[in-house]
Amino acid sequence: MRVESVRGMRDILPEEAVLWQRLEEGIRALFALYGYKEIRPPLVELAELFARGVGEATDIVHKEMYVFPDKKGQMLALRPEATASVVRAYIEHGLYAKGDLAKLYYIGPMFRYEKPQKGRQRQFHQYGVEALGSLDPALDAEVIDLAWHLMERVGLAREGLYLRLNSIGCREDRPAFREALRSYFSARKAELCGDCQRRLEENPLRILDCKEPQCQGAIAEAPKSLDYLCQKCRAHFEELLSFLQDLGLAYELDPRLVRGIDYYTRTVFELCSRELGAQDALLGGGRYDDLVELLGGPPTPGVGFAGGMERLVLVLSQHLTANPDAPDLDVYVVPIGDEGRRKALEVLARLRRAGVAADLEYVGRSLRKAMSVAARRARHALLLGPDELAQGALTLKDLASGESQTLSLAEFLADPRAFLSPLPSGEKGGGDPFPRKTG
Ligand code: HAM
Predict the structure, then answer these.
(1) Fold: same for 14-173+229-316 and 329-419
(2) How do residues 292-344 score in pLDDT, each as one tens digit?
(3) What does the alpha-carbon distance between residue 229 and residue 177 come to, in Å, rounded to a whole number?
């Protein structure tokens, strides 16, 4: 019987992995440019971390988290997001003790038991940043600038994107806003779905995230968080808006945006694609000024975002030239006869130690077939036949020009790079990392 992959968890096959690698490289380089350093928290945490950090009443914790007991009965969870993990690590390792801003980034898999659809999976991958230790709205602006810059870097045009922005205030503002929502939605309770009737008791803010069509009428006319901001939160938000204007970064104020996680305070935002349909958020984030304290650390504000790799790949693959068959080897070794086969492995080992990407015709194809595989996979074919070997030589064929030359094996192996032409641009090791469709 065939064993298949788990629903919502897919393989990233080699052809697609090339794009992932390039994206990851680009993302890491950009994060470093803004002063972020990588952190790699574990995939498994105590379930309690997310229940407290992300919030019991959120869909992520309430419905979507993979939770299981270990052999001692401790409840563990596959991480559904990384902000809570980063904050836990920040506290556990006393990173705040340095007294400086901590700027941390991550790239890796997250797990949510959601209904899989285009751009939504159960194992998905996020790239994200967290900046801990400053309340300055300039940092919110910098984080949003980084989000826009990342889209520019991978080549997505601004016109295809929009940034939704809102402020949901601080914990002092929250009770009045929550009460306003509770009393408003209580009056319209009959219109709400079953989940929202539960949310009304647990955390009425979460009703604003609901996607059920039946709730949209009531949500559209609900009280707006911006009307409940204290003086400080209002000033913070206004300063952020003026920074964004100075930076020339577009945004759309969206009073409905509260994001589906409880830790947010003040700024919340999502950068969305006009090309993705229902799952249009490429990335989302905001401020979380109470989370460090909530998880047992000293009061420390934070701001960050995370984006979905799969969604980025989806949008990008609509714009890139797919060229899965482009050669990725410098040399394909084609042995002829037993002597050739015996010598081939040694030649291959020497080539690789000299930094030459090389592979061997292992399948025993005819010379003609082997040469057509070589043409597809490599820049050069290296023929090792009895005639060549008898003279201590080899034949090197340039598969782009079709020209062949006979070379001394010893001379060639002493400095193979001197005899080899580079791979075409855009392929391994050079050129435009994101070749675009033309016309
Ligand atoms: P989030 O909005 O839950 O925020 O997720 C961020 C991004 O991850 C989404 O915008 C989306 O691109 C991607 N994503 C989420 N769920 C899925 C899924 N099931 N399949 C594919 N992609 C998905 C957070 O996770 C926060 N930790 C972000 C943050 C960091 N806020 C402050 N710092």
Answers:
(1) no
(2) 999 999 999 999 999 999 999 999 888 776 565 678 899 999 999 999 999 99
(3) 9
